[in-house]
Amino acid sequence: MTIRQAYGPMLAQMIQDSASRRQMIRASLLLAAAEIVLLALHGDRHGPSGNLVLVCMPWVALQLWCGAFLKNAIRQNRPEYAGLVPHLRSRLIRLTAAMYAVEIALLAVMCGLVFGHPGYGLVFGGAFAVLSIFMNRYMALLWIMALAIPFGTSYVINDLPRLLAGANEAVVTAAAMVPIMLLGGWGLHLLLPRGGDDHWNWQARFSQRYAALTCAPANPSARQAPSRIKQVMQSFYLAALRRDSQRGVAPDRALMHAIGPGAHPARMIAFSLVSTLLALVIGRFLSGDARAGMTIATGLMQLGAVLMYAISVADDVVLHGAEQQLYLLTPAAPAADRINRLLVTTVLRRSLAVWLVSLACVLCLDSALTGHPSLHGVSFAMSMVVVWTVTPLLRNYAVAPARRLGVTWTVVIVFVVLVCLGAVGLLEAAPNFPWYAVGSVAGIGAVIYMSLRLRALMALPPVLPAGRLAV
């Protein structure tokens, strides 16, 4: 059997999956557009910013394609297929390892051409590839990464270059690549296990997670008990559910649970508070430049909590149409002419709570950086910009199909990231930029647009249950 016959069908699986292929092509086009915009902002300066943009965007695209193939390989390595296709698992492991090796090698080449350090590019690409492999197995690493990014970014930019300046690049690369290859192989063996009870359990967890992300009907026999971290994160919502299940509860509080668990803001608020506290504690032990970089990155991440809450609510509303139908049949359900007003009130009040907590966290970070109560102009402008991320929640859910707005939210996320990166670049290029005026215009525009959307929603028939008029 030739190599093409052995590995060709496995590679073709991802290409023939039209939904996955379209999603990856759209993501690649978005990254290409982001690179053009960022190079226009940073490319005129012969500094690290333009070079970093030149390398990062193609590398992120390669990471997305490797991650998509890894998930496809996990779906191919089903226990029932192991006995039908000889050497399926070993071939999938080799092919996945080869794809990641090519991605790491391309990053090393780009780092060598742009920065003159191919070895460090090889180490960084390998370390991140190993981390992404283990994040597919252990979801708790996603939360650790979300907390570590703002703290690690300042260290990588400010302190790591000085630390590596006196080191031998070849020795560091050789010493680091050995554990990276061992950990990568171990991670692939965990993601693509042999047949057995562990394989069935892992495949059931992965299928349940994949069904939740794609809104496909989950197999009832494949449902698993939630992990401890997920139980802790759900405890806030469960406490509110027990409280709001009593008699005489206000209709808007009961409606929140019919919308779905994602409408409860406690998780995002807890994440903002914990990450801000960690930033304040760690910032006391950092130097001036590292402390400033970490504070800016953490502040932008706090404002991103509003976007993540909006994504959670928008997806949950359309996925819980059946629960909304049952709730609206109960005696305690609100009248039909009050449903839209209650929905808008519930969503906006909780979004405002997340936004206010995020803004308070940014205020604390800026005040700690300056030594007195203050809110930097760029922080104020970005806090006004993220108000726009709440506007997609004000739509007619009755005609919305029961699927997540994956591509739409991807565009929004890329746009917000571009705005943040552009703001950071503009902060360096134009220190006297009128941030407060720009932020005021953005905030007033968001309020006007939401007022128009509210008026349009109030004139519509009940927008709940979600999806009842979808075609």
TrEMBL record:
<feature type="transmembrane region" description="Helical">
    <location>
        <begin position="352"/>
        <end position="369"/>
    </location>
</feature>
<feature type="transmembrane region" description="Helical">
    <location>
        <begin position="375"/>
        <end position="394"/>
    </location>
</feature>
<keyword id="KW-0472">Membrane</keyword>
<feature type="transmembrane region" description="Helical">
    <location>
        <begin position="49"/>
        <end position="70"/>
    </location>
</feature>
<feature type="transmembrane region" description="Helical">
    <location>
        <begin position="91"/>
        <end position="109"/>
    </location>
</feature>
<feature type="transmembrane region" description="Helical">
    <location>
        <begin position="141"/>
        <end position="158"/>
    </location>
</feature>
<feature type="transmembrane region" description="Helical">
    <location>
        <begin position="24"/>
        <end position="43"/>
    </location>
</feature>
<keyword id="KW-1133">Transmembrane helix</keyword>
<feature type="transmembrane region" description="Helical">
    <location>
        <begin position="266"/>
        <end position="286"/>
    </location>
</feature>
<feature type="transmembrane region" description="Helical">
    <location>
        <begin position="406"/>
        <end position="427"/>
    </location>
</feature>
<protein>
    <submittedName>
        <fullName>Uncharacterized protein</fullName>
    </submittedName>
</protein>
<feature type="transmembrane region" description="Helical">
    <location>
        <begin position="170"/>
        <end position="192"/>
    </location>
</feature>
<feature type="transmembrane region" description="Helical">
    <location>
        <begin position="433"/>
        <end position="452"/>
    </location>
</feature>
<keyword id="KW-0812">Transmembrane</keyword>
